[in-house]
Amino acid sequence: MTTFKKATKTYLNIKESEIRFSVDSKIYSKDVIFKACYALIDKIYVFLDSPVTGELVVYLKTKKKATQKQLEKLRDEFLNELLNVSIRKNVSQKNQKAVEHIIGGAINAALTKQKVQHTEHTAQEDEDIQEIEKEIAALKKELEADMKEGDYDEDPLDIRKPIA
Amino acid sequence: MTNVLQFHQKIYTQASIQSAIEQFRDFGSFQVSSRGKYFEVAIPESSLEGDSDMLAHEFKNYVLYLDITHADH
Asked: What's the pTM value of the predicted model, to 2 decimals?
């Protein structure tokens, strides 16, 4: 049995378990239609044609026998998916600049923070090195002073005893 | 006798058709040509094992799958 519904431009071929309907390609772009096809392509056979400019015909065919209701349900599922993909695309396009701005800001903030941390780290290291050098110099001076004070021949406490 | 499949050139790409032919080469020698606004793929009858319609539908599905996945979204 083949029927034709003028309003939806739907052709039903129950014998072949196939439903065919047209989609206005001015409303739905090719990539939106492709994405809608992708949602169904693993379950059924999907084929596209464009016999008239500006009109895209979608063929949906089940792999097993299907009733009229099942075929119409498939068409409705496809049309819902078309809307779904179309809305997601519109929202994505509208938010694209905001998303780019947020991501750009986040990357910039992360890079600036990293740079500041790196600069601070270097200055801290320089300070440490200077302190260590000062300590080394002070220790050297102390050692030199000790060497002068600790002269073996001087015997300031008079404890040296002659060996008999 | 051959089964000829038509693919609209504004929807399907030749690269996807060639790629599908390569994948289906075990089922026979598929010949591709261009006629008007369609690419035509001829599937020789002798190459069809079992359900010839099923092979044609599987082939068309696979070409569409390749075009969907290779399209730049």
From this structure: 0.68
The overall longest dimension of chain A from CA atoms, in Å, is 140
Instruction: Give the gap in angstroms from C-alpha B66 to the nearest C-alpha of chain A.
Output: 10
A22, A31, A45, A52, best to mutate vs chain B, most B CBs in 10 Å? A45
Chain segment A75-112, per-residue pLDDT in tens: 999 999 999 999 999 898 888 888 887 888 888 888 87
Q: In whole angstroms, what is the distance from residue A66 CA to residue A114 CA?
A: 62
CA nearest neighbour of A58 among A84, A37, A76: A37
Residues 6+ apart with CB under 8 A from B14: B32, B39
Burial class (CB in 10 A: 0-12, 13-18, 19+), A35: buried
Residues 6+ apart with CB under 8 A from B42: B2, B3, B4, B5, B30, B31, B32, B33
Q: What is the pLDDT of residues B4-30, one digit of tens each?
A: 999 999 999 999 999 999 999 888 888
A29-34 long-range contacts, Cβ below 8 Å, gap at least 24?
A30/A56, A30/B10, A30/B11, A30/B71, A31/A89, A31/B71, A31/B73, A32/A82, A32/A85, A32/A86, A32/A89, A33/A58, A33/A82, A34/B67, A34/B68, A34/B71, A34/B73
Give the minimum alpha-carbon distance from B57 to chain A in angstroms, rounded to a whole number: 6
User: B61, A31: Cβ pair inside 8 Å?
Assistant: no
